[in-house]
Design goal:
With 341 residues, the protein is of the alpha/beta class.
Length: 341
Amino acid sequence: MIEIEGSYGEGGGSILRYSVALSIVSGEPIRVFNIRARRRPPGLKAQHLTAVKMLSSISNADCQGLYVGSKEIVFIPGEVSGGEFSFDVGTAGSLSLLIQAATPISVVLRSPLILRLRGGTDVKMAPLMDYMRFVFSENLKLLGVRCEIELHRRGHYPRGGGLVTFKLFPSKVHEIDHVEFRGRAKMVHGVAHAVKLPHHVVERIAQSAEKTLRSEGIAAEVKRIWSQNGHLGPGAGIVIWMKDETVIGADSLGEKGKPSEVVGKEAASKLLAELKSGMAFDRHMGDMILPYLAIAGGGKVGVSELSMHAKSNMWLCERILKTEFRVEGGLGKPSVVEVVR
């Protein structure tokens, strides 16, 4: 049984989610301890519990320690097939992170997997759902991973209630070599949304993003999505991206007291900083793509900024998949990451 120190590196829920996913991929039982030990409160929260329960059900696993507040789990994976499952976080916990947890198991699926998920679609400390739809899933196609994300209803903090269908297909992951982003298209696309808020909110967010990008000589088309009905609570946000061989993205979430113009400008400024690095993948995609390189057993990518999440993911892949990474760069800097074993 592989022992995983849950407080390593960034010490959050990411280590737990990827530990369980990679356990399923490798077939290796794991024990994860000191889960979220440096967070307050420590241990499993509802969204982490849902992620492990989801992966346990999908893989017919034997799992111990599944309760809110638990600081240790033992996970013994079983056989993965496919089928349809429904999971409700019960809070505004991020559905993007559930998708992040499930996607690596595509390499051991025998038939398509359909997950009907309820919770938060656009919340703090996680990629917004449109990032997962238009950046994450598009970049994974480069590696051979096939998935589809259908957004039926948005869910914001604190009530959640968002509805998403995630379809994952049996996939064979292969190596990639994408270091530089050339951005030859010079066109940014995006989606701005506002629900249960005045229409001018979404318009101001989109216009601010477009204006900021145009000031740097970059054309932008941001789709406006506005709805008053069918959502449990108000919320707003924006995701923008530029596509070349890879897709670079950035997002920003609306908050009470945060002007709409700031939301749009923030997303645009983030994207401009990502593009300035010249690397093929943005900061968030840079950490999410690394487990797939490890599964493929090779590959080389350029990331705009090596995050602590990325460092933690490399450490975890070395523990479970016996992968070896080589990094040119460093924490907080543009870096090239390569799987050498």
